[in-house]
Amino acid sequence: MTVKVAVAGASGYAGGEALRLLLAHPEVEIGAVTAASSAGTPLGQHQPHLVPLAGRILQETSAETLGGHDVVFLALPHGHSAEIAAQLGPDVLVVDLGADHRLTSAADWQRWYGGDHAGTWPYGLPELPGAREKLAGTKRIAVPGCFPTGGTLALAPALAAGLVRPEVTITAVTGTSGAGKSLKPHLLGSEVMGSASAYGVGGAHRHTPEFAQNLSSVAGVPVTVSFTPVLAPMPRGILTTASAPLAGETDTAAARAVYEKAYQAEPFVQVLPEGSWPVTSATLGSNNVQLQVAVDADAGRLVVVAAIDNLTKGTAGGAIQSMNIALGLPETTGLPTVGVAP
Length: 342
Ligand SMILES: NC(=O)C1=CN([C@@H]2O[C@H](COP(=O)(O)OP(=O)(O)OC[C@H]3O[C@@H](n4cnc5c(N)ncnc54)[C@H](OP(=O)(O)O)[C@@H]3O)[C@@H](O)[C@H]2O)C=CC1
Ligand SMILES: CC(=O)N[C@@H](CCC(=O)OP(=O)(O)O)C(=O)O
Known about the structure:
Layout: E1 3-8, H1 13-22, E2 28-35, E3 59-60, H2 63-66, E4 71-74, H3 81-88, E5 93-96, H4 106-112, H5 131-135, E6 140-142, H6 146-160, E7 167-174, H7 189-192, E8 197-198, H8 208-219, E9 224-231, E10 238-245, H9 252-263, E11 269-271, E12 289-296, E13 301-308, H10 312-327
Parallel strand pairs: 1-2, 1-4, 2-3, 4-5, 5-6, 7-9, 11-12
Antiparallel strand pairs: 7-10, 8-9, 10-13, 12-13
């Protein structure tokens, strides 16, 4: 099976990462690559590492340029995917890397993003209970946000097993590529180098409802979430520290056993050997999630640390993993499980 794939937002970080991975996918032929203000320029000007596509001229992003493909990746700013997807018809597999179709609640969408809710598509986090069944054969995929990817996988087993009470605290340190390539004042070199900064503090970040939605679904009861992102001077990677109050007596060995059981069959999730702690540098360029678990007995809390690459598993890799399932391909097809180090 060879599928023809178009990528909208090809000059951006998420679109570029999708192309890097798709170039190595044995069942994919890359078709149109599109953008907006960069349309008309060679892709190589924006993505110099994508040597095989260097001469490809970025086209305008439209139903016309994206039509005629089997799969279309939309790696666009929020609010742009719904209109295009509606014009692509029901037979095209549309993979939305943006936020437009992740939330199940229209009220949450209006509160956190604003505007009309474009509807909810099957959620592209295959490791979530029941996700694979919804992704199989689908023609629409909503890829998770980068923070919810790591944080949901960090806490899901504990909530599902009733190890903790449904009130979680999540802090995630992210690299600057999470903000996209368009220059943002707080990302200017001198503002970021050698400094870490919290933002979206006090429940202000728009991933809060996505965390709550995912974790409440796993727990079977409403889960309250306090999420704090921290920007760090590194290009890629997210290190998440998630914790929750213990629901009863347990210890680190028992908690680790719950996680090892939950993820033993997962090709991209590794619970590290006892004593090893995740580092983002071990996941860069791979679709892996590396986890470690500890019980803080004095504080009566479970603590879970997770490392991912925000551009790989955090968006483009997770998108391709879900595409594989939708197409009936082996889930790991074309996806790296070994990071680039140092
Ligand atoms: N960066 C990350 O770690 C993650 C990103 N995402 C999501 O992926 C999406 C893309 O993000 P990212 O790649 O980081 O952003 P970038 O700013 O790096 O890239 C944005 C892309 O969208 C294009 N674009 C901008 N406006 C329009 C428009 N009106 N019509 C068509 N194309 C447009 C840009 O083209 P041009 O060059 O012409 O401006 C560019 O190719 C966003 O929704 C983001 O939230 C999700 C998870 C993680
Ligand atoms: C550093 C930084 O700015 N990170 C982004 C994460 C973007 C992301 O995950 O994508 P979505 O916007 O599609 O959810 C943020 O905090 O919003």
